[in-house]
Specification:
Catalyzes the condensation of pantoate with beta-alanine in an ATP-dependent reaction via a pantoyl-adenylate intermediate. This protein is of the alpha/beta class and 284 residues long. It has twelve helices and nine strands. The chain folds into two domains: 173 residues, Rossmann fold; 93 residues, 2-Layer Sandwich (Pantoate--beta-alanine Ligase, Chain: A,domain 2). It is globular. It starts with a strand and ends with a strand. Bound molecules: pantoate.
């Protein structure tokens, strides 16, 4: 496995691979890798002849400096994990390499996809994601890029970026990997106290309740949201950032429980912000 921190060296290797006709798969991460990330790698290895993982905690996508400062970093175990999984190259740049002092900073956004969910409650977050992901795509020149569907809004925003700006690559969404009790895997789970970890199971249980009440015949979207909100709020130390029902494609709010809908939530359990979502099909 090659570990590269400099752009020049990375470009050299990519050119070599391209000349040999390799198919490049790219899995961008912020490290503290878990089995969810490894699903991205597994998928990439199935489809591509070379797999690149980037590990970079991107400062520009954190709207809360405290959240950035406490984001977990485990580079040694991440590299070992990548080696074991047969990753070909890890790109591990510093902040200075990714963001050399620029006199002309660029800001990107896709307003219609950012007006709800995390885009609404984390102003500036997707601008940072679009910035870093565009740079990483240019640097790694992948044929395929793999993103977890736990960050569904991110997946939609990046898919739109690629389509609107004609990036020559395909974005692949990989299903959310869950712990045995249903909690979506996340590097942030490591920061939960044992008590808060137990409280966090209310999130997957809320999705179970959502499906049960839909099948049970609930037709009123406001009543449905109230039931789900009340259920989440039984958690001690839990604060809801949002609980929204939107169209899975446009990410605009829906007013009826019909067809396919995206139920998405972000909650703070203690200091830790957790997100999850599911696309549900409403019974006729
Ligand atoms: O999903 C993430 O871990 C990050 O948002 C990403 C895509 C690596 C960009 O920093």
């Amino acid at each position: 496995m090659i570990v590269v921190s400099e752009i020049g060296k990375l470009k050299e290797i990519i050119q070599e691979w391209k000349q040999k006709g390799e198919i490049i798969g790219f899995c961008p991460t912020m490290g503290t890798l878990h089995a969810g990330h490894m699903d991205l790698v597994t998928q990439s290895k199935k489809q591509c002849s070379k797999t690149i993982v980037s590990i970079f905690v991107n400062p520009t996508q954190f709207n809360d400096p405290k959240d950035f400062a406490s984001y977990p970093i485990n580079t040694d175990s991440d590299l070992q994990y990548c080696q074991e999984q047969g990753v070909d190259l890890v790109f591990l740049p510093s902040v200075e390499v990714m963001y050399p002092k620029s006199l002309t900073p660029i800001q990107m956004s896709i307003p219609s996809l950012q007006s709800n969910l995390c885009g609404r409650t984390r102003p500036g977050h997707f601008e940072g994601v679009l910035q870093v992901v565009s740079k990483l795509f240019h640097l790694t020149e992948p044929h395929f890029a793999f993103f977890g569907l736990k960050d569904y809004q991110q997946f939609r925003v990046i898919s739109a970026l690629v389509m609107e700006l004609n990036f020559p690559l395909q974005v692949i969404g990989v299903p959310t990997k869950r712990e045995q009790d249903g909690l979506a895997m996340s590097s942030r789970n490591l920061r939960l106290t044992p008590k808060d970890r137990e409280t966090a199971t209310l999130i997957p249980r809320m999705f179970q309740l959502a499906k049960k009440t839909l099948v049970g015949g609930e037709k009123n979207i406001n009543t449905w949201k109230e039931i789900l909100t009340e259920f989440l709020l039984t958690g001690i130390n839990l604060k809801i950032d949002y609980l929204e029902v939107v169209d899975p494609l446009t990410l605009q709010p829906v007013t009826n429980l019909s067809g396919d809908i995206l139920l998405a939530t972000a909650v703070f359990v203690g200091e830790v912000r957790l997100i999850d979502n599911e696309i549900l099909t409403c019974p006729n």
